[in-house]
Amino acid sequence: MFIKVPKGTQDILPEDILKWYHIEDMIKEILNKYGYKEIRTPYFEYTDLFIRGIGESTDIVTKEMFTFPDRKGRSLTLRPEGTAPVVRAYLENRMDRISKVIKLFYLGPMFRCEKPQAGRFRQFNQFGIEVIGTKSSAADAEVILTVLDVYKKLGLKNLEILINSVGCKKCRVDYVQKLKKYLKDKKDFLCSECKERYNKNPLRVLDCKKDSCKKIIEIAPVITENLCQECESHFSEVKSYLNDQKIVFHEDPRLIRGLDYYTKTAFEIISGGLGAQNAIGGGGRYDDLVEELGGKPTPAVGFAAGIERMIIAIDQQKIKWPVEKGLDIFVAKVNEKNKDTAFRLLQKIRNTGLSADMDYSEGSLKSQMRIANKIGARYAVIVGEEELSKNMVIFRNMQTKEQKEIKIDNIIDELSL
Amino acid sequence: MFIKVPKGTQDILPEDILKWYHIEDMIKEILNKYGYKEIRTPYFEYTDLFIRGIGESTDIVTKEMFTFPDRKGRSLTLRPEGTAPVVRAYLENRMDRISKVIKLFYLGPMFRCEKPQAGRFRQFNQFGIEVIGTKSSAADAEVILTVLDVYKKLGLKNLEILINSVGCKKCRVDYVQKLKKYLKDKKDFLCSECKERYNKNPLRVLDCKKDSCKKIIEIAPVITENLCQECESHFSEVKSYLNDQKIVFHEDPRLIRGLDYYTKTAFEIISGGLGAQNAIGGGGRYDDLVEELGGKPTPAVGFAAGIERMIIAIDQQKIKWPVEKGLDIFVAKVNEKNKDTAFRLLQKIRNTGLSADMDYSEGSLKSQMRIANKIGARYAVIVGEEELSKNMVIFRNMQTKEQKEIKIDNIIDELSL
User: Fold this and answer.
1) What is the pLDDT of residues B182-227, one digit of tens each?
2) DSSP for residue A44
3) Which residues in chain A are closer than 8 Å to B67, comparing Cβ atoms?
4) What is the pLDDT of residue A83?
5) What is the CATH number of domain A329-414?
6) Rounded-to-integer distance, Cα A89 and Cα A285, Å
7) A138, B339: Cβ pair inside 8 Å?
8) Given this model, what pLDDT does residue B120 score?
9) Which H helix or E strand runs over B198?
10) CA distance B226 to B224
């Protein structure tokens, strides 16, 4: 009996790896163009970081974390998201001393112990950007534009942008009171989870996906009608920057995100045809998080997108992936006796910088040619008894099937053609 | 109080990321040249995989694994090494059907809950290669040559190659008997761990780093004098391939590695000046592992190297890292009123494919120029009231400090120079 890959996770196999290279290279290229630099934080953190950072009553913290002890029994958690670790690293490494505004990106795995379903994995990959140290609405707009540029360069079309403001510490308190008041006499009709949310964190009710709760939420008071002056004008500035850049977006006053740290701008990018898990990315401003994690008050804004969902969306939109460049040379041997000469030749070819391989399975010449074809080799060098006695090998163009005898000593010259 | 990075782990900061890009790109380039394709397995596996794969009495399994339950209570473990997961993926995805010999590589984090010390981290990165499906001694040689090529292209010098054969299921049983017999009357002088090893897995005694045990091991019978005919000739073939390629190596008959799965060839690559943790990579043949994990008998050979130690070795040998290419354009504004125009210009420049940024912190022009210098911008575009009224901006060469007024509409032409 084989041991299987853990439930909710998947192997990325060699036949799919080019897709990942393509997306990862594109992300790095675009983010560098926008002035972001990569940071890599460990894949686990002290559990406290996420409880304080993401919020005690979020789904992530209450039921989706992989948690385990270190040698001394201190609780560690596989990172379920990238922002809290980046802010931890920002504070620990005193990055505020480098520059007032710091622009970082990350690219790597996140872990959530969710029920596996289409488009949801327990280990999944995200890229994310964080602009730390500015309250400027232009930064919010930049974050959205950056992400859209990544999607665009990957060829993704028909993306819908949802945008909202979830207010700040000040105006949100008033709104939550209003929302609670509205929900009070409807409490019995809420789902059991939302009943709890009503007490602990009523804003989370807006995020419920259950139909019964959705109906109640539909006519609830909206946060955008309850913003303070500062949040209001920040929100309209962000929208005006986007309009100026001819970006079409929709306001969704019920959009809050699954993390407690957002303030002011919140946004989500939707790709049609992804089914229930149609968000391919989202983000927003988090002006209080740095302070909550022990730093000075420091405004910030960011974004994260799931790579697996981007791949699904690209496949659904039938966008072509780059094709694999085959091997340059396959070295074949007529029989096993010529193995050592073949190996020597193989290393000689590789040392010129060309990619080359041979078959280590003692297969027949025919089977070796099959392998050469399968791996897309452009040329084959065939080492045979008869030719060797004349210091020659057979040089075969795998596409045209033309072949000729060449001197072993000339093989490198021949290959540079 | 800040929350710190977990003990034994580290952040890879933007100022160091280029080192990682350099090494990772080099690894991918060389491994592709040798015909290896990347596979990415999840960062955790069912714990069983490592117990069965690595060996119950190894240090890794007995004391270094990070283990935690999934939702249903099944035990998961962060991968402490890459070979067992690759073999799991090989079996689960029936890769034997694709080709008789499969060549894979991986590149990513491993996790061991060790006592942190110089060069040892609880999350560290490895690249590794695996050739699955061949018993050919040429494959053993290729693995060693591949790795040496990676080190060479990175500029590493003065590497020492240690090589040994640890025999096969057959001849090792006899050797272990002999070793046990030798150790029997010296048991009292072994360390407490080795006393246990003596009972559970006497071969592991050879791996003990304690001086008292080392002395006893020094004159113990060696495995290479007890190899069966097949292992003997396999070992001399490997050595002959290496000699043929002018590779200098040392035989170390006491070299066994920290994992139970090795058979026949075992090797290690040492870089002077790394202190106690001087091995920068190692590997060997593991002809029984595929079968032990539930597959058909399938010979295989592989290698793994720690990236952090490669970086330390490169720094110690004072090898130059590639230098960062600065930003193309920094857009500055004379005052905040010109912010929107500056932002519009910034996006226009980015849309041409150039890298560009501005300052979102409302700093003075002087402070903006400081930032532009710090991030190594080649040019600055300065947006000022006076020039704007004429539809002009100032275009400044940050190196020569020369500047001139140019028409906004001509800015893209100017930049393409």
Assistant:
1) 999 898 899 988 898 888 888 888 888 888 888 898 889 999 999 9
2) E
3) 68
4) 96
5) 3.40.50.800
6) 18
7) yes
8) 85
9) helix B192-200
10) 5
Query: If you measure CA to CA, which chain B residue comes closest to A18?
Result: B38
Chain B residues close to A142, C-beta within 8 Å: 343, 360
CA distances to A130, A298, A375 from A90, in Å: 11, 11, 45
How many other C-beta atoms lie within 10 A of the C-beta of residue A413?
A: 10
Inter-chain residue contact B2 with A347, CB threshold 8 Å: no
CA distance B374 to B225: 62
Question: Least CA distance to B104: which residue of chain A?
Answer: A14
Q: In sequence order, what are the residues at sequence separation of 6 or more whose Cβ sits closer than 8 angstroms to the Cβ of residue A92?
A: B2, B4, B5, B11
Task: Give the closest-approach CA distance of B271 to chain A in angstroms.
Answer: 23
Q: In sequence order, what E strands does A80-203 have?
A: 102-111, 123-132, 159-165
pLDDT in tens, chain A (417 residues): 789 999 999 999 999 999 999 999 999 999 999 999 999 999 999 999 999 988 887 888 888 999 999 988 999 999 999 999 999 999 999 999 999 999 999 999 999 998 878 778 999 999 999 999 999 999 999 999 999 999 999 999 999 999 999 999 889 889 989 999 999 989 888 898 889 888 888 888 888 888 888 888 888 999 999 999 999 999 999 999 999 999 999 999 988 876 778 899 999 999 876 666 688 999 999 999 999 999 999 999 999 999 999 999 999 999 999 998 889 999 999 998 999 999 999 999 999 899 999 999 888 999 999 999 999 999 999 999 888 889 899 999 999 999 999 998 888 888 775
Distance from CA of A221 to the nearest CA of B (A): 33
Q: Residue A158: what residue type? A: N
Bridge partner list, B266: B164, B284
Q: Which residue has the tokens 């699954």?
A: A258
- pLDDT surpassing 60 at residue B417: no
Are A363 and B100 in contact (CB < 8 Å)?
yes
Q: Coil, helix or strand for B327?
A: coil
Choosing among 3.40.630.10, 3.30.420.40, 3.30.930.10, 3.100.10.20, the CATH entry for A14-168+228-316 is 3.30.930.10
Residue in B42, B111, B357 closest to A35 by CB: B357
Q: How does strand B356-358 pair with strand B329-333?
A: parallel
**pTM of the entire predicted model:** 0.94
Candidates B411, B374, B375; CA nearest to B396 is: B411
pLDDT of residue A376: 92
Assign A73 to helix, strand or coil.
coil
Buried b / exposed e along B195-227 (16+ C-beta atoms within 10 A): eebbeebbbbbbbbeeeebeebbeebebbbebb
**Which residues does A187 contact at the CB level (< 8 Å), separation at least 6?**
A195, A198
Show Cβ contacts of residue A245 under 8 Å, excluding neighbours closer than 6 positions: A141, A145, B344, B347
Length of chain A: 417
Using the 8-state DSSP alphabet, how is residue B123 labeled? Answer: E
Q: Contact B355/A34, CB-based, under 8 Å?
A: yes
What are the respective helix, strand and coil percentages of chain A, to the nearest 5?
45, 20, 35
Residue ranges covered by each domain of chain B: 14-168+228-316, 329-414
Two tokens at B59? 């240090």
Residue contact B88–A5, C-beta within 8 A? yes
Question: Is B11 in a helix, a strand, or coil?
Answer: coil
Of all residues in chain B, the one with the smallest CA distance to A90 is B13
Cα–Cα dist B114/B65, whole Å: 9
**Residues of A324-350 as b/e, b for ≥16 C-beta within 10 angstroms?**
eeebbbbbbbbeeebbbbbbbbbbbbb
- Cβ atoms A140, A167 nearer than 8 A: no
| Listed residue (B399, B394, B158) closest to B271, CA to CA | B158
